[in-house]
Amino acid sequence: MWEQVQETVSFIKAATGFTPEYGVILGSGLGGFTSDMEIEYTLPYEEIPNFPVSTVEGHKGALVFGTIEGKKVVAMQGRFHFYEGYDMKQVTFPVRVMKFLGIEKLIVSNASGGVNPNYKVGSIVVIKDHVNMMPEHPLRGKNDERFGPRFVNMSEPYSRRMIVKAKEIAQSLNIVLQEGVYLGLQGPTFETLAEYRMVKALGCDCVGMSTVPEVIVARHMELETFGVSVITDMGDEESIGTITHTEVLEAAKEAEPKVRTLIKNLIIQY
After folding, report:
1. What is the pTM assigned to this prediction?
2. Residues 80, 205 contacting (CB under 8 angstroms)
3. What range does the domain containing 223 cover?
4. How confident is the model over 131-143, as pLDDT tens digits?
């Protein structure tokens, strides 16, 4: 994989000459964040060597390079999921590429189902920790020390300093932020009511089908990481029967302006 990562990095550097400080992974319905960037280059995934191609509605499929008030950013419009048929090394490949392009900080966003009764559809949740219940681990197999150590300390998967700063920003902008633990499952089915109860019983607040592998790989390479989730459905008897992917995208789109504002200001101020 080392050779593939370096080949991809060399291609992107030759095409853009761009060295980003921040990487941003935009989840379902949050692709509009790039409107806040002064865009310099856009590379569709299909043009990038070794890159997978996103197959999910709401994920556009491009690397976007630009600045936000002078901060250099590379944003992924669309991520890759294990349920699409990719293995975990493919799912997390872009995170490794962004690291070797120069990023020092990674921001990940997603849509998730909520089980915390304090949440509602549209709630914005800062992820403080996660539980990994994916069926494959992105670091399984022989470790390449050039990426990071064999055994990764996961005591702080999400940067406490970035969380504190995000809370300060949210308070100053009157954005209501929740905080919670995210549980990662394979998907692509939405959870059953029994599974939602399991998520709650395990001490988690929300559940989704992404993010966890990306964060593990980010920490493998010592990237400071921040995660935010939009609650797009509630895992209770009242709402579970009606949830569809269209509704998820609509709920994410409604919350998108606040999430965009939060991420933009975090990049500017942190």
Report:
1. 0.93
2. no
3. 2-269
4. 999 999 999 999 9
